[in-house]
Design goal:
The complex is a heterodimer of chains A (about 575) and B (about 230).
Chain A: H1 28-32, H2 37-66, H3 76-112, H4 120-142, H5 156-160, H6 165-192, H7 205-237, H8 250-284, H9 291-305, H10 320-348, H11 357-380, H12 382-388, H13 392-422, H14 428-455, H15 469-502, H16 516-519, H17 543-548
Helix pairs in contact in A: 2-3, 2-4, 2-15, 3-6, 3-7, 3-8, 3-13, 4-6, 6-7, 7-8, 7-9, 8-9, 8-10, 8-11, 8-13, 9-10, 10-11, 11-13, 11-14, 13-14, 14-15
Chain B: H1 27-62, H2 64-71, H3 76-101, H4 105-136, H5 153-189, H6 193-196, H7 200-224
Helix pairs in contact in B: 1-5, 1-7, 2-5, 3-4, 3-7, 4-5, 5-7
The chains are: A mainly alpha (about 575), B mainly alpha (about 230).
């Protein structure tokens, strides 16, 4: 690796690019059998992008269908399969792995000063499990699809549905283990692999958020795995744990499902919050206000996340008293969420704000997450929940959190760390345009859905002709917005790919940001990240020290001599 | 700790069979990381079984009389025998870890063979003396017929559904244990560097085995020893 011979001062050759994790080996095998967390992150990036595209396609069909109140495009059953495919792909194959498996995988070892994650082979296994699960689900789609919604409520999923539920659920079961593997890896890594001086108090908030996420993953995912497996057993072996015909209780399924699937919402949003903390610090050139509060609010959200699942079941057979307790606990989630938003806003105050493209995404995250979070309180309150549950109000609410929150954060993070991951800059103005289109398109798509839901349009219906013209207006508005949103999502695919070949070299620290990934490693990093292990002597986001000149923003210059004219190796003598 | 090699000098980063992997600073850090990883995995296992225990508790609370009648079809003798077999296997596993710590290869292998013998005996008793007779008596979920005069047939079926679900999942874990212990035996026998100077792999598999044992310690009284 680092035993490349360094030639003495001969400056005749053009500069050679330095060795990094991308260009050490080029064979397919070196990618498919890699243990390098960065390469696995790239593999994940490619696979989740494919699934995101498929899920968006299904969303497109849904939006198109809803422009007409009489369902002219799709049969009812096809429509059911379409929204099920959209939900399952987006949640299990895109949102849950998106930020942890791509950005987390790539950045956590570098941010804490480690050469790799604790268990590289487990990490690779997790990608293969994800892929096997994904392929199984696609097979289920091709064999006729799944019509039970992403929630797989029993007894529809276990007895009555004629879709390919069994294969799909086996796929999801396997995918669950891919995220468990990632969670175990992150916990062991963050606990034991931090560089000297990288105390818990100095961890970037991105790492804190992923630590909280990993705890949710390891406690929640096994429960949903066994729950979905029981549904499979019920279909195949007639084990009737959830089947009323066999003395079982279908509501038990809802309890066990939401025990995971509500915390799963935090698996999706917490890493996004971690990304946003990094973006605000970097583009305000300022330490995140209330660092400890932001760090511990992640843990608080993770902890509270496990005791609020009953708010999905206010209209089930759950008792009123349970409902009251779950309602109260659900309101509490607003506190740590608000702590984060207020602290981000306070970070901007008196910051040296640089309005780069990632910051566009970060700022739109704040607005969208705020709406998404606050409309969540409507569902924490039992009375309004009874009116709004199962309507488009719910659909709009969770899309504000999932798309407006998690995907916006993901895009912001990809734009922020793209120069680090691939060493190239993308065209800034195109990125800003994309951020703007996503923000506008998203709001035009989902704000009307709040109105639709309030008017009483149920989710998962494609007939609404009995409701008159109002609903069609809002539905068409929403569909129009979704086309703008689609362009906003498609643009990055083009200019980011373009930048791989034609983009300007980024250099190790294009944003002037503090953090081991910017200060101590090149862009792209080498295979084992650090030439020598860093010793951390400064606090997280110590921009004050940078301004005072006591902290160097980049000390990787000697690894990049080749870029400034000195060839590193001499072959043509 | 005698086997510590510095692989960070620049050459030969990380080969699978070296005791110290490239991502760690020293063997101490590696061992601590392995142990914390294993415990985290066991937490996921607890949650995995926990969901089933929850389902069991709910239905036992709801249908206590029917569960009592259904449980009389289970053989306390063979269940108890299996409990003894598993407890003894855990003793041998603890001894195996002890010998691994003292680098006594021969004794460690022997102890692991005894664990394997117990594991196979457990599965044998389970399948031949418990599961197969249940099939013949039409008590498995697929061919369930309840012809007893007393007890609700549906609730009895639920009891056996849960019984087969949970003991089946436990059996799969025993099977996985046999495979993993076999792999460990192979590595120890081949003097693989990853296990030669380091007892942690044995310790981790021991932790897993004790966990599987503990699950059975809960399953046995919950299914075989119901009060009236």
């Amino acid at each position: 690796m680092s035993s490349i011979p360094v030639a003495p001062q001969i400056n005749t050759d053009p500069p050679q690019p330095t060795r990094n994790y991308l260009n050490t080996e080029h064979t397919i095998k070196s990618w498919l059998l890699t243990g390098d967390h960065k390469r696995i992150a790239v593999l994940y990036l490619i696979s989740i992008s494919i699934f995101f595209f498929l899920g968006s396609l299904a969303a497109g069909f849904i939006r198109l269908e809803l422009t007409s109140p009489r369902g002219v495009l799709l049969e009812s059953e096809t429509y059911n399969k379409m929204f099920s495919a959209h939900g399952i792909i987006m949640i299990f194959f895109f949102l849950i792995p998106a930020i942890p498996a791509v950005l987390g995988n790539f950045l956590i070892p570098i941010m804490i000063g480690a050469r790799d994650l604790a268990f590289p082979r487990l990490n690779l296994l997790s990608w293969y499990l994800y892929l096997i699960g994904g392929v199984l689900f696609l097979i289920a789609l091709m064999m006729g699809g799944v019509d039970a919604g992403w929630t797989f409520y029993t007894p529809l999923s276990s007895i009555y549905s004629t879709g390919q539920i069994t294969i799909a659920l086996v796929g999801l079961f396997i995918t669950g283990f891919s995220s468990i593997a990632t969670g175990i890896n992150f916990i062991a890594t963050i606990h034991k692999m931090r560089a000297p001086g990288m105390t818990w108090d100095r961890l970037p908030l991105f790492v804190w958020a992923h630590y909280a996420t990993s705890i949710v993953i390891i406690l929640g995912t096994p429960v949903v795995a066994i729950t979905l497996l029981l549904v499979v057993f019920e279909r195949v072996f007639k084990i009737g744990v959830f089947s009323p015909e066999l003395g079982g209780d279908p509501v038990l399924f809802q309890h066990m499902f939401w025990f995971y699937s509500h915390p799963a919402v935090y698996i999706m949003i917490l890493p996004g919050m971690g990304v946003i903390s990094e973006l605000f610090a970097a583009f305000s050139q300022k330490r995140v206000f209330g660092y400890h509060f932001v760090a511990f609010s992640s843990l608080a959200i993770a902890a509270l996340g496990f005791i609020v699942w009953g708010h999905h079941m206010f209209v089930s057979s759950q008792s009123m008293y349970q409902g009251i307790v779950f309602s109260f606990l659900s309101f509490l989630v607003a506190i740590p969420s608000a702590v984060k938003v207020f602290n981000w806003a306070a970070t901007l105050y008196k910051g040296h704000i640089k309005l780069k493209a990632p910051m566009f995404f970060a700022l739109s995250f704040i607005g969208l997450f705020l709406i998404g979070g606050l409309t969540g309180l409507y569902f924490a309150a039992v009375a309004t929940d009874v009116h709004l549950t199962g309507t488009y109000f719910v659909v709009a609410h969770f899309h504000y959190v999932m798309v407006g929150g998690a995907i916006t954060a993901f895009l912001g993070g990809i734009h922020y760390w793209w120069p680090k991951m691939f060493g190239k800059m993308y065209p800034e103005s195109w990125a800003k345009l994309s951020a703007l289109l996503v923000f506008v398109g998203f709001n035009v798509t989902f704000l009307p859905q709040f109105v639709l839901g309030f008017l009483g349009m149920p989710r998962r219906y494609h007939y609404y002709y009995f409701q008159g013209g109002d609903m069609q207006f809002y539905n068409i508005l929403s569909t129009a917005g979704s086309t703008v949103l689609a362009i906003g999502f498609l643009l990055p695919a083009f200019y980011l790919t373009w930048s791989l070949k034609y983009g300007k070299d980024a250099g190790p620290n294009p944003w002037g940001a503090v953090g081991l990934e910017w200060q101590k490693v090149g862009s792209p990093p080498t295979t084992y990240n650090f030439e020598e292990m860093p010793v951390v002597t400064w606090e997280a986001y110590d921009y004050q020290a940078v301004r005072e000149g006591t902290l160097e923003l980049n000390s990787t210059a000697h690894h990049h001599e080749s870029y400034i004219g000195q060839p590193e190796k001499e072959e043509k003598v | 700790m005698a086997m510590v090699q510095d692989t960070h000098g620049g050459h030969g980063h990380g080969h699978g069979d070296e005791p110290l992997h490239h991502q760690f600073e020293d063997i101490h850090q590696q061992n601590e990381t392995y142990v914390i990883g294993m415990w985290t995995f066991l937490v996921t296992e607890v949650m995995f079984f926990g969901a089933l225990f929850l389902a069991y508790s709910l239905y036992r609370w709801k249908y206590q009389p029917d569960f009592y009648i259904a449980h009389k079809e289970l053989s306390v003798f063979f269940g108890g025998l299996n409990t003894v077999v598993l407890l003894i296997s855990s003793f041998f596993m603890a001894k195996a870890v002890y010998h691994a710590q003292r680098k006594e290869k021969r004794k460690q292998l022997n102890m692991l063979w005894l664990v394997q013998a117990c594991a196979v005996a457990f599965l044998f008793i389970k399948v031949v003396f418990e599961w197969m007779p249940k099939w013949q008596h039409h008590l498995t979920p697929l061919n369930f017929i309840w012809d007893k005069p007393e007890g609700n047939a549906e609730h009895a079926q639920l009891f056996f559904s849960l019984y087969f679900g949970m003991t089946g999942l436990h059996g799969i874990h025993i099977l996985a244990g046999i495979i993993v212990i076999g792999a460990l035996q192979y590595l120890v026998w081949k003097d693989a560097p990853s296990v030669k100077g380091d007892y942690i792999p044995t310790e981790m598999i021991g932790l897993y085995w004790h966990f599987v044992d503990i699950v059975w310690i809960f399953l046995f009284p919950l299914y075989y020893l119901l009060p009236r």
